[in-house]
Amino acid sequence: MTGTFDRTDPEGAIAAMAERCSNWGRWGADDVRGTLNFLDEAKRRDAAGLVRRGVAFSLSQPFDMHGPQKGWRRRTNPVHTMLDTGTDAAAGVQGFPHGIGGADDVISMPLQCSTQWDGLGHIFDHGIAWNGRPAGEVVTSQGDQVTGIETVADAIAGRGVLLDVGRAFGDEGELPDGFAITEEQLTATIRRQGETSRVGRGDIVLVRTGQLTRARREGWGDYAGGPAPGLSFTTAGWLHRSEITAIATDTWGFEVRPNEFDDAFQPLHQVAIPHIGLFIGEMWDLDALATSCSADGSYEFWLTAAPLRVTGAVGAPVNPIAVT
């Protein structure tokens, strides 16, 4: 299934794709890392050699109250509050000796309100989680007891590859909302960019659509949950065959929205996470990196993107750093 499917039958299409792309049992019955098994020590060592200029790019959006969230499923923007301030210190009310003072703060936020990874406990298929486990035995009120994001806190660092599909197929670098990126367009983008954008086992692939560029210029609008460019459901086979370790986009939901079926919600997630075991990143800021890659002619780099080590979390914030 690379290009066509019955728009009226998401159940059937998801089931067929899940069977075709399943990695269940590939790394044993107890596996908790999914496609991160493709990223081994040798690949990290090779990826470290990609640093040529030493130029670093943060791929994170700001974590503040000016983000895109509008409250869907209780997702809000981060709330940052000061606990101690310079005015407290100046007023002498902090209770410290010999004139020392300081500032402290606290943040409250959903773990997936801005730049983040989806963990393997984030999405289920008919009550089944990654590797065929019953979802109720994986994620409870205590959190993800099996594949919590802390299990990969040391793993997501290696060769990053940028596929700037926005520049390859968009209008002035931006794909329109609802644009479904196909396997053929991913492959064409790789050809256009050259050898440094080849994609293979263990790579962390970043797909720029340009939607964040547009939102930054025009305002958030429906960026969080509304129409968006993104990967077509039909790319599931490519995601599986390529043996990449993770993929991230500059959009809220990774896959094209509206979804390609008459009545569906995030069907590619339903295959990619519980069946392929793929880690998905969303709301990454790829613009500065893309400009640099275009100017330099190289689309590969060292990338470290460790999630915040929140025990039992099914997703977590991240400040990815690409070094060229």
UniProtKB/TrEMBL annotation:
Coiled coil spans = none
InterPro entries on file: KFase/CYL, KFase_sf
Pfam families (UniProt xref): Cyclase
Q: Name one GO molecular function term.
A: arylformamidase activity
For biological process, the GO terms are: L-tryptophan catabolic process to kynurenine
Query: Which PANTHER family does the UniProt record give?
Result: CYCLASE (PTHR34861:SF10), PTHR34861
Protein name per UniProt: Putative cyclase
Protein source organism: Amycolatopsis arida
